[in-house]
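Exercise 3.2. Students should predict the tertiary structure of the chain below and write it as structure tokens, then compare their answer with the key that follows.

Predict this chain's 3D structure.
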Amino acid sequence: MINFRVSAMACALFALSPVAYVQAKDTLVAALAAEPTALDPTKAVAGADWYFFGQVFEQLVRFGPDLKAVNWLADSWSVQGTAEKPIIDVYLREDVKFHNGDPLTSADFEFAYERLKDPKISRLSHFQESVEKFEIVDDHHFKLHFNAPDGNYIANCLQLWAIPKKYFEKVGEEGFAKAPVGTGPWKFVSRSIKEDMKFEAFDEYWNKDARPKVKNLVLKFIPEDMTRIAAFKSGAVDWIDSVPVSSVDEIKKMPGVKTFSAPTVNNLYIDFPAYKPGSPFSKLKVRQAVAHAIDMDAIIKNVLFGQGERYAEVWHGSTGYDPALKPYAYDVRQAKQLLAEAGYPRGFETPCYNLITPREPNVKEYGEAVFAYLGAVGISCKVQGLEYSAWLKLLFRTPTGPLDGIVMNMYGHGLPGDPAEPWAGMLHSYVPGKGFGLTSQTDDPKADAMIEELKSTVNPDKRVDLIKQIGHYKHENVLGGVPTYRPIITLAWRDNIEFRPWPFPGSWRAFQEVSFKQ
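Answer key:
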């Protein structure tokens, strides 16, 4: 039996004027570049959804500011049972309440599990696929019985969110979507779509050592970079995320301002329909040509102003990182030769889809630079810019697949990160209803077998070895797209505020600990 008090395993515009800012010392106003699409963790679709979940909802395990796993709503947990049919035995904290006053019990997690495993409700139902039974022992003790080992479940924070059963059954799905209730440090107050969300601090929050000391929180949604910066400079907002990369140095030098810079959860990459017969991208040499055609170092330097880190399949802070694996070198001559050998001596034309909403800093400009480099070797892009919602719809795979060209994509690998779950979604072949290949443009039996083996591997050392094997195979065959970079995000706030960034959920945007200086 393996016991965990603290897990050592990897879990995987302006409503307020400047005058109002001066007067409202009990209210923190923050500006985000992207707006969440869902308020129910069961219906998570986009990375920006976690910006909301990180304020209101909580899991059994999470990562702390030091990127180490820490038990959260779980007081302790252990892995029992057999190697073939493991059991995760969980003891809940006994002092946790939901925002409506109901105590957290095992029944709430059972309710959350039932919803999360239902594909009619959840896009992430495959996370619960290996759980055979949820057994309630008592109000603060439950067991998850698995029909097969599932290393991904453990690596990704035990995959469950606390959802209040009694409250949900009282208000229904529509009512919960309008007024969500969790156990987190902030209580939801209201939402104005495309404008803001309002919260108030939860007085009965269980964690007395890590909680906000501000009464109210307002999250404003300002996707335009210069407008967001102007709001910060004017005093209309106290805190901003996604400082534009061209403004990072300026903001860091501003008097009375503090900043924080760190990698985000996202690994960015270039994807294409490699699985489609007849597509140029079904040919390995074309995929290799794409990899050689782009000077990613120059893009990071000149387009991203240095606010990015290159990676080769696995980021250096993630499980299974292999320093021996290097990104493809920028080589125009090699790219053109590969295209010619693939049967395209004069290149070819293809649709190219670019995300124009600033989901990450300068992501639109990064895409434009990539398309220009591809054009220089003969891959001529018919560029189409997509807002966030339209871009998301394009990514999800169907039996026939909507993608007919190149797309600038990203997939959250987590902080510090474990690539197993992302690879299941972006590299494994598409399997309807199973969660495999949700955004994959690849069909490769060998990759599928390795990813399925990784999912069933619990031993941490064996997982590292297998991740390295998959990384090399993925890299050599340019499957699951061409890795480009991991963004570095900068947050900024006024120096009369104490703010400690927490990495997950929300990629450093969780206001777990924030206060005004006296």
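Discussion points: The chain has a mean pLDDT of 92. The longest helix spans residues 460-477.
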